[in-house]
Predict the structure.
Amino acid sequence: MREGNKVMIVGLGSLGYLVLEMLSRNPTLSEWVKIVAADVAEDRGQKSVNLAVAIADKLGLHPDIKFVSMDLLDVDSSAEILRKCDPDLIFQVATLQSWWVRDYLPEDEQNKIAQAEIGPWLPMHITIPYHLMQAINKAGITPCVVNASVPDVVCPTLAKLGMAPTVGIGNLGEVTPLLKMAVSKRLGVPIRDITLSVVGSHYVCFHIEANGSTDGAPYYLRVLVNGKDVTQEVDPDQKLKREGWDDIPQIPEDPITLNKLTAATVVKVIRAILQDTKEIVNTPGPNGLPGAYPVRLGRELVEVVLPDDITLEEAIAINEEGNRFDGIEKIEDDGTIIITDKSYRIMRDMLGYDVKKFNIRDSKEVAEQLGKAFRSYGKRVGLPDFALNAIYAGK
């Protein structure tokens, strides 16, 4: 059992920096956890670390934070850095393309391309985690790995190659406090008295945040108030799927602000693992499973904890169906991801990107193909230069 307290944050974009900031500001964690912040952009990364240290100092805290430059597309050099740092936990948040890029498309183009959902974009999101897990294996280290990059699909795909991260974060975990707020208001009970057990996919999370409904995607929800089951009272016959709830609180939609909620879910998972709290967290990708579940977390514990009216097999089936709503038809045993016909046609017709399936081993090359197609399309429809420059199309 690892007993250390060294956390490596890989990727210091908006979310990675927010996690760095939250860890360094938390009075119970900041001077206990040792942080290694890693990013391919050395100048920006070091400046982000300097800012986090300066803010913490103003609050009377003095975290131990070091910066290292690391290019995860270079497995050999990354393995050497990982060997030297030997982190106890790695939080992986790097990606080849940030999801905010599409927000700068003309509105009608945004609406059309959004119908493809996230499935066709997976080459951009799975490449870095795949390279990271290779580097970890080559380094001969055994950290816990917390993956933020589309964990509902990336974690189970990596599991096909025996490279599953420990657990994912975000997605459905972001929705649970909003559901608890709605239940609290509806029943007039304190949020602290409410316990939720939720099973669902990234699609479920995204659409609940967007319009208060799962838009037909399957999910499982159990709601307890002080141990009493009130599920049917607050969600009769799965109204959340059929009609939605009109009292789910709205939160800011811009990604920078929304990432504060995501960062809080990350810190909760990191704390549960490193401090061995064995608390139950609703989070995606545990042990390489698709979608999200209630998961008990500790130093050497990642255990799906389901109520007695649903089996693990049923929960997995719910999330696999949810992934199909998100444009992922199937993950094959050799690590091949098959895109649904609908999502494939949208990307082919709009971008000229003609990829129905790809293997994770080829993800970097496929990401380059997707990036070139997206950049060409972006130029045609007037995507701003700064957004075009944020599209990965190879080196």
Remarks:
- The chain has 15 helices and 15 strands.
- The mean pLDDT is 95.
- Residues 6-168 form a domain with the Rossmann fold fold (CATH 3.40.50.720).
